[in-house]
Each structure stands twice: as C-alpha cells, then as structure tokens.
Design a protein that fits this description.
Shape: elongated
Helix content: 25-40%
CATH class of the largest domain: Alpha Beta
Radius of gyration: 35 Å
Number of strands: 22
Strand content: 25-35%
Number of helices: 16
Oligomer: single chain
Mean pLDDT: 85
Distance between the termini: 82 Å
C-alpha cells in the first residue's frame, strides 16, 4: 500500500531564523556568519557560516577555526518552538490540518490543498507565497507519497532523479514514484547513527538496498526501528490519516476591548467591561474549562500599561472578573506618575485553567463553603481588594515577620512565593513549637539574676549570669525562673553594621514559658507559651 500524498513545508536553518526573530536579537544580521551551539557542537548555522566551511555537528572550536569571524550563541529549543508557533498558525489559516513535526518542519495532507488550488504545484506555490510573506523566502516545499518521502523531496536538488521542480523551492515526486526516488539515498536518512552503522557494516548502504529485503526478515533482525526504516524506504502507507496527525488549532481564549473615549472612573470601566467578562467566561465554558487565575492589562491613552495577575479561591465568574477590573482600575488611578486621561484598552488573559468537571459539586453538598465564599466575596466587593483576607505563614526569623496578610483573591504566584520563603533557610529562626501568643510588637521585659542585677549577653554570646526572675511590662511574676535555653544569635545585615540580636526561651516554676529577644542592651517578650 503506497502512502497517501503528503505536503511538507521545511524552513532550512530554522534555529537561526528563530534567533534573528527573538526580542534580544537587535543588531544581528542574517548575512553574518552565525552558529548555534549545544554541548559544544554546532546545531545550526547561517548560510554565510556554511560558505566558510561550518557544518552542523562539528565542534565549536573547529567551527571557529574554519571561520574566525563566526558569532556563536547558545541554542534554546524553547525559542525555536515559540517563534515557530505564529508560522504554524498562519499555515493553518491557509491549509487546515497541519502537523508540526518539529520547529521548522510541518506536514499536511496534499489531497485537500491540491483539489482547492487545482493541482499540487499551485498548492505548493500558495504555501511558498505565504512563507515569503512571513519573511521566510528560503522555505522549501516537498510533495510525495508519505511524510518521509515528502521531507526528503523538500531537501532534494532540482537535478535529483525522480523529482520535478515547477518552481524554485518546490519539489514534487509523482504518485507511485517515491520508492524509486528514495532508492539512491543513504540509509542514514531513515535511521539513527547506531543502526545506520550496523546496516552499512552489513553492506546495506542505500534505502533501495534496505527496501529490497523482506519485511519479516527486517523485523526479526532489527526490531521495530528497522521495520519503521523499511517502510520509509518502500513508501509504505499504513492507511488514511496514519502519516499526518494534525494538531488541534489552539483557540485564543484572551478577550480584548478598546474604547474611543478614555474611561477614568473605575466603576464606569467595570460597567463597560461587563459584556467583555461574559464573553471571556463564555469562551472558557464552551471549551469546558474554568479559569482559576487570570491576567488583566489596562492600557491608557498615553500607552502606559497597568498589568496584574489575579487568582481565585475556586474559579472566576463574570461578576468576579468585573470586580477584579474595578479593583485594578482603582489602584491604577492612585498612581501619581501614571498619567493619561483614562483607560482605552482592556485585555483579559487566562493564566491558569482547569477542566470544568474538576470543579463540579461533589456527591455531598458543599453549601457551607459556598456560603462562606459568597459572603466574603460580597464583603470584599464593598471594602476593596485588601479589605478581606486570611493569614499565611511567610519566611522570617522573628515571629512577627512570619505573619503575612493574604487578600482573599491573591495571586497564585504570591502564594507560591510565600510557601517557598517560609520553607527556606532562616538562620536564627525558631525551630521548635511556636508560642501560642505572638505580640505584634515585642513587650519590654527585664530578666534578673539571683543577685538582682540585670542579665545580659557577654562577648561569648552567653548569659552574664543565671536568670532568676522575669518582669514583663513592669509586672513581676511570683514564680522564679526554673529553666532556660542557651541564647542563640540572630545576625542580619552584618555587613551594614547591624547589631546582633539574641533569643532566649525561659520557663517559670509554675509552667509559664516565654520567648525573649535581647536587642540594643534590653530584653523584650516576643511571644508566650500557654
């Protein structure tokens, strides 16, 4: 069975194109000798570097020896994928059903485009015309039986046997002619380096020699990898749709609204964006998604942009989205340096989405939680974003520093940062159980020894004498000090000359316990254990 007709679009040296299209590529010339390096090997190079003898796969030092003017840059696969996404999206607008094999290489079934454009050559011409409009004049198009043969056709020269070149950059292998076209190609085109070396050692150096072997013998001797290579060499098709697996086009979930007249009042802006919020949530609902975090971008008439991410304890509704727009607009207008007469553009983008099925009500009613959320949201809508919140554990050495107020609709990024800082290393922090009562500001205290003199810290970071009596806020406790821990230092910003602080746990004879801190020559009560 011959494979179905396939059209392949190939952009030579795509990593170089991606580098030149990246945001930090100002000043780079496409005519300069460039090379991208990974693991000290050349991954891709520009035509100017290739003319100087630079080739893919050679070592970086050898490439610089061949071309002393060569500019080398680290290869970033994420940049390749990110910069190729708009190209793939443009191809999908021209020809539906595109499979992105990798960045710089796309495949699609040739039957539909050839019928629409009245022939394979006109279809290839339309694709090349689009590539030129996208700034890719060196793009190549190959049409043959199967994706592998079409890719090899795109790489072929116009003088190769079995290939016709109606246009510059277009190569077509006639139906049924793919096995003959592939026959003289080296076997390394279809297999990896290890299997290619094995096949060449057995005298199988071309795809034609591999195709001449019985399929069962190849499968038994070389396994699935050898069978795949044999089917590539014979242009064997596994049935309709097996060669090309089109991706599902990515749906744009962001929504945007522009105003001819700038809007300065937060309430007016929220009212104007009500339909926008409904459209945003409706688009997610159609895809059976819910939004748990979103980003709102407000742009004023002078081009200043106010951007912020918002998270939701459950998932956003249209009313919640409108509320976030109002809060953000209110905070933006309080910035004195913002300028502008008002907001002219609003854009809402989902940052985190989840399947709607994961947020459906459970078997048992969750009405109390919904009621709590409803009332807190109503109170927050009246009091503002920071009017309602919870307390989270943050990082810090002192107990008061570890308390962090979190607004009810804080961002997920802020929560992740709080968790990370809380678990980070904090030398001098309390490692044992925390006091049940923490004072917002430490209360002045006095620690006395048996002689009645104040207890301090000596040069060796030790107590000057054993504590015997504790006074907190001028209140003397009748119970004497029964036990105490060794003092431990809390040293912060010592390079700026900040004095060290010392912490101490003391327990009275009646079981009462206190956490003390010694700073600037005086004691203070930081917390109390009940």
């Amino acid at each position: 069975m011959i494979a179905e007709r396939t059209l392949v679009v190939w952009v030579p040296d795509w990593p170089v194109h991606a580098l030149l299209r990246d945001d930090g590529a100002d000043g780079l010339s496409p005519d300069a000798p460039l090379a991208l390096i990974a693991n000290h090997l050349v991954v891709a190079c520009s035509p100017a570097a290739r003319r100087e003898g630079v080739r893919t796969g050679i070592r970086e030092r050898e490439a610089q020896t061949r071309c002393p003017e060569l500019a080398v840059y680290p290869h970033d696969p994420e940049t390749d994928d990110r910069r190729f996404a708009p190209v793939a999206a443009a191809l999908e607008q021209l020809v539906p059903g595109v499979e992105v094999v990798r960045a710089g290489l796309c495949a699609m079934r040739a039957r539909g485009p050839s019928r629409y454009y009245d022939g394979e050559a006109p279809a290839g011409e339309a694709v090349l015309r689009l590539a030129a409009e996208l700034g890719l004049p060196d793009a190549r198009v190959g049409i043959a039986d199967g994706r592998f043969a079409a890719e090899q056709a795109a790489r072929a020269a116009s003088t190769d046997l079995g290939v016709s070149a109606p246009l510059e950059g277009l190569r077509i292998v006639e139906p049924g002619g793919s096995p003959a076209f592939l026959s003289p190609l080296p076997v390394s085109r279809a297999v990896d380096a290890g299997l290619a070396e094995t096949l060449q050692g057995l005298g199988i150096r071309t795809l034609g020699a591999l195709a001449a072997l019985p399929e069962d013998a190849v499968r038994q001797r070389f396994g699935p990898q050898g069978l795949t290579a044999h089917r590539r060499a014979t242009a064997f098709g596994a049935g309709p749709g097996a060669e090309v697996r089109p991706r599902q086009p990515v749906r744009e979930l962001s929504v945007e609204l522009s105003f001819d007249t700038p809007i300065d009042a937060a309430d007016q802006l929220a009212f104007a964006c009500s339909a926008l919020a409904e459209r945003f949530i409706g688009g997610l609902t159609e895809d059976r998604l819910v939004c748990t975090a979103l980003r709102i971008e407000l742009t004023d008439d002078v081009g200043a942009r106010h951007e912020r991410e918002w998270a939701h304890p459950r998932h956003f509704t249209a009313a919640d989205t409108v509320g976030r727009i109002r809060w953000q607009a209110a905070s933006a207008t309080r910035e004195t340096e913002r300028g502008g007469a008002g907001v002219t553009n609003v854009r809402i983008t989902p940052v985190h989405t989840d399947h709607a099925a994961s947020h459906e009500p459970g078997l048992w009613s969750t009405e109390p939680d919904e009621r709590v959320h409803h009332h807190l949201s109503r109170a927050q809508s009246r009091l503002g974003h920071t009017g309602v919140g919870t307390v989270a554990l943050a990082g810090g050495r002192l107990l008061a520093d570890r308390q962090r107020f979190v607004p009810w609709s804080t961002t997920r990024v802020e929560r992740a940062t709080a968790r990370a800082s809380a678990s980070g290393p904090w030398p001098g922090a309390l490692t044992g159980p925390a006091p049940s009562q923490v004072f917002p500001e430490p209360i002045p205290a006095v620690l006395l020894g048996a002689s009645g003199s104040p207890v301090g810290i000596d040069a060796d970071d030790l107590l000057t004498e054993d504590p015997a009596q504790l006074l907190v806020a001028a209140t003397r406790f009748d119970a004497p000090v029964a036990a105490w821990s060794p003092p431990w230092a809390v040293r912060e910003r010592w390079w700026e000359g900040a004095p060290a602080r010392f912490r101490l746990q003391v327990q009275l004879a009646d079981g009462d316990a206190w956490l003390l801190i010694f700073r600037t020559g005086a004691w203070a009560a930081e917390g109390r254990y009940d």
